[in-house]
Amino acid sequence: xxxxxxxxxxxxxxxxxxxxxxxxxxxxxxxxxxxxxxxxxxxxxxxxxxxxxxxxxxxxxxxxxxxxxxxxxxxxxxxxxxxxxxxxxxxxxxxxxxxxxxxxxxxxxxxxxxxxxxxxxxxxxxxxxxxxxxxxxxxxxxxxxxxxxxxxxxxxxxxxxxxxxxxxxxxxxxxxxxxxxxxxxxxxxxxxxxxxxxxxxxxxxxxxxxxxxxxxxxxxxxxxxxxxxxxxxxxxxxxxxxxxxx
Length: 246
Ligand code: SF4
Known about the structure:
By secondary structure, the protein is an all-alpha fold. It folds into 2 domains: 114 residues, Endonuclease Iii, domain 2; 100 residues, Endonuclease III, domain 1, CATH 1.10.340. 53% of the residues lie in helices and 0% in strands. It contains 12 helices and no strands. The longest helix is centred in the first third of the chain and has 18 residues. The protein starts with 14 loop residues before the first helix and ends in a 24-residue tail after the last helix. The site of iron/sulfur cluster (SF4) has 14 residues, from helix 10.
């Protein structure tokens, strides 16, 4: 599959899905909600978030697939904004996969240190680029199995690459997604990223999965925030179908 090199994505309309959601129940979710009812409610949430955040995309800046891998590793316990400040400096010194693979780990660490966990991030990034160079001909692989073999790449990162680079169905369970999925009653008291991912696969239309997760980040930043004790439910587009498990 062809790599996409632009992180900005446009949203294609999906009337079929919208029509499916017309019959979505407006009742509040309960912990005994049936899978069928939860699917309908999830479908309605997908449509409302799509209307609210039509032009969603990954907030990490990158113009090549391997740079997304670098950014997502740096983003662990760091803000995307900080990562987007640091990566141009890194690429100014080491502009290619080969350059990072050959760079002294200390030099990489000195640059990425402001993102936190500098030593381990530098080690993973260098090792990851070395493996891309030596085993994949400097091409980012397009399967979950191969991506998970890359140093520092977990399911969240792999799903982000599969969805944003290769246009595959993908559910990225970052902290926003996990927090909102619980508050919205799409999962029940579940914090484990892989378990949340599996639960969301059961109820989110696959073709909506990747952009849905980006929109969960958008909504988590704009309305259903983690910082305030109380999210802004009065301004929320799904308030009437959300159990508000805050
Ligand atoms: S802001 Fe309130 S109503 Fe909206 S998703 Fe968060 S908890 Fe639910």
